[in-house]
Amino acid sequence: MDVDEFEAAFVSKSGVERRVRWQGLPAVVGEIAGPVRAFRSHRGQRNYPGWYWSATTGGRVGFESWVERDHLVALDFDPEVVDVVSQPFWLVWRQDGGKQRRHAPDFLVRRTGARWLVLDSRPAELIGDRDRAAFAVMAHACAAVGWGYAVWDRLDPLIAANHRWLGGYRHPRCFDGAVARELLETFTRPRPLMDGAEAVGDPLRTLPVLYHLLWRQWLVADLSVVLSHRSAVSVSPKLSDLSDMAQGPVHSEERR
């Protein structure tokens, strides 16, 4: 297929739908404002659409299934992700025989260093021939403009559950600088989660901050197993100055 004939359609920040040559999309990608189509909801449907408040973007990002929601939480947890837009654009192309077709990927992800990833979320067992054909075209189109492309299957259920739990403490209101400083000092060496929380003070006060620090990955634990009061927690080896880290939450613009 000739990428020169591909087009992209998206909704701009002014609320107007724009249509551009596919290879021209990177030059105007910052104008993409949000979903290019509505999230459908009706009685009896098998998927569960909704909106997720992203700590990365500071706003709501839509999803159309629990699989997409788990992927969205994982992206929000990733410190290298700067921005996420759901259903960001239509890729429009002509199939063999001249029939026009279009596909809207699930997410457009911007990573640090101006790296872009186009992402489709689909359980492997639900991918049919029509999906495979669309995904192949999307991969070809992304490669032509230097973007990454991936199709994500369901996440490991334990990791997804841990992400969701920590995500409950993602909001900056869960941060307390004084408590954070003490927790970071307490966990300079690995120790059980609850043991460290109680060493700093009343767990009702310290646990929300501890979980927020785990969400920010200033503290780390093995999330491939169930996160519990016995989980070994320690300061991330990526942190160099604990006093600086305890000043306040990291905002998305600081990741760029």
Average pLDDT score: 92
Number of helices: 8
Termini gap: 35 Å
Which sheet architecture does the biggest sheet show? 4 strands, antiparallel
Count all strands and give the number.
13
Helix content: 25-40%
Total domains: 2
H and E string: EEHEEHEEEEEHEHHEHHEEH
Describe the structure.
- This protein is of the alpha+beta class.
- It folds into 2 domains: 3-152, 3-Layer(aba) Sandwich (Trna Endonuclease, Chain: A, domain 1), CATH 3.40.1350; 157-255, no CATH class.
- 31% of the residues lie in helices and 23% in strands.
- The strands form 4 sheets. A 4-stranded antiparallel beta sheet has the order 2-1-6-7, with no helix packed on it. A 4-stranded mixed beta sheet has the order 5-8-9-10, with helices on both faces. The chain has a 3-stranded antiparallel beta sheet with strand order 11-13-12.
- The protein is elongated.
- The model has no long low-confidence stretch (mean pLDDT 92).
